[in-house]
Amino acid sequence: MHYLEIDRFTASYDGKEQVLVDVSIQIAKGEIISLIGPSGSGKSSLLRGLMGLLVPQSGEVMLDGEKVDYTNRKSVKALRERLAIVFQQYNLFQNMDALRNVTVAPVKIRKRNAREVEEEATALLRKVGLGDKLHAYPDELSGGQQQRVAIARALALKPDILLLDEVTSALDPELVSEVLDAIRILAAEGMTMLMVSHEMALVREISTRVVMMDRGRVIEEGSADRIFDNPRTRRCQAFVGKILSH
Amino acid sequence: MGGSLLEQLPLFLSYSNVSFLAQAFGVTVALSIVGCVVGYTVGALLAFIRNRHVVDVLPARFLSVGFSETFRRVPFLVKLMVVFFAFEVVGMRVSMFTVTATTVALAAAAFSAEIMRAGLEALPESQWDAAESMNMGGVMSLRLWALPQSWKVILSPALSFTVGLIKSTSIASQISVFELTYAAKVLNERGFSPVLSFGSLLVLYFLICYPLNLYARRLERQLERPRGWKSGAPLLAESEAA
Question: Domains of chain A (ranges plus CATH)?
Answer without folding.
Answer: 1-81+207-246 (3.40.50.300)
